[in-house]
Amino acid sequence: MDNRLLHILVCPICKGQLSFDKSTSELICHADRLAYPIRDNIPVMLAEEARPLDTPNAAHQDDN
Q1: How confident is the prediction for the chain on average, in pLDDT?
Q2: Overall average pLDDT of the 39-59 stretch
Q3: Partners of 28 in the beta sheet?
């Protein structure tokens, strides 16, 4: 994640600062406890695409 881009992007809900989680390739809003995915090096900054931090990463879930 480009550091310049990280300083420009904000949470679309609260407009707060985001942090980059390299292990999950997500942008994290600690205020709203949401994780925004990064797909093909493009941050997906849509509230409906965000995952609550209380749930496991969708990439690590099983389809049982």
Answers
A1: 86
A2: 85
A3: 19, 35
Question: Does the pLDDT value for residue 63 go beyond 50?
Answer: no
Q: Could you tell me if residue 33 is inside a domain?
A: yes
Distance, in Å, from the CA atom of 30 to the CA atom of 21, rounded to the nearest integer, reads 12
What residues have CB less than 8 Å from 36, skipping those under 6 apart? Answer: 11, 18, 26, 27, 28, 29, 43, 44, 45, 46, 49, 50
Residue with tokens 């809003």: 29
Is 63 a member of any domain? Answer: no
Whether 39 is in a domain gets the answer yes
Would residue 59 count as lying in a domain? no
Closest CA to 53 of 19, 23, 30: 30
CATH number, residue 30: 2.20.25.10
E strand or H helix that includes residue 37: strand 34-39
